[in-house]
Amino acid sequence: MSGAFAAIKRQWLLYHLGDPRFRFMWDTPPADEWVAIDCETTGLDTRRDEIVAIAAVRIHGNRVLCSDRLELLVKPERRVVSPDSVRVHGLRERDVAKGIAMDEALRRLLEFIGSRPLVGYYLEFDVAMIDRALFPMLGMGLPQPKIEVSALYYEYRNRQRPMHERGGDMDLRFATIMSDLGLPQRPAHDALNDAVMAALAFLKLRGLSMS
User: Fold this and answer.
1) Of 3, 17, 173, 186, which residue is 20 to 30 A from 137 by alpha carbon distance?
2) What confidence tens digit (pLDDT) does each residue in 103-113 have?
3) pLDDT of 62-90, one tens digit each?
């Protein structure tokens, strides 16, 4: 995207922004900073299910700032937490009933992210869930650049393959990626743990790509 086109698009989005308090999302991001995010949900249907937990952690330079994090429990408005989802993330209806409203969670999340690029594993799902909840507030979704950890890993490992084997299938499970990169694994399907692991994988892959 050319600089002129990007500037025009930015102005168009700002003009149509539903709440001017969040104009900061289009500011120039701080140098060498990112935010890793993850969500837990009532299910896997991005059109109907709801978010029950959001976590985010900031990355600065080559460090994951675990002390600079956001953890939110969110009370769903309509959907009950399915038994299958409880088996995955352990959050029961009685747990999420103590959560905050989605609008408040979004406000706090956006303020935490600012204009920083987003990092995650299966980030497309998390962003789709957030965007659907965000659209009534802003009339648009998250504008920040998105970085998918599994795509970085695929590109890294694909470059190491013989030319005739490139482009083939690859095991992109989160546990496989973390193990192959020699990174510590936290219990999965906890929003903060998954955000921290995505941040660690991002930094490791970024370092490998620069070496």
Assistant:
1) 3
2) 999 999 999 99
3) 999 999 999 999 998 876 777 778 777 87
d(CA 104, CA 83): 26
Dihedral angle, C-alpha 28, 7, 113, 111, nearest 10 °: 100
d(CA 17, CA 157): 40
The CATH classification number of 27-210 equals: 3.30.420.10
Report the distance separating Cα 207 and Cα 199, nearest Å.
Answer: 12
Which burial class, exposed, middle or buried, applies to 146 when counting CB atoms under 10 A from its CB (0-12, 13-18, 19+)?
middle
- Tell me the whole-structure pTM to 2 decimals: 0.89
d(CA 97, CA 10): 38
Q: In whole angstroms, what is the distance from residue 200 CA to residue 206 CA?
A: 10
Other C-beta atoms within 10 Å of 104: how many?
Answer: 13
Instruction: Give the closest residue to 70 by CA, choosing from 94, 41, 117, 35.
Output: 35
In tens, the pLDDT along 115-151 reads 999 999 999 999 999 999 999 988 889 999 999 999 9
Q: Residue 50 in contact with residue 96, Cβ under 8 Å?
A: no
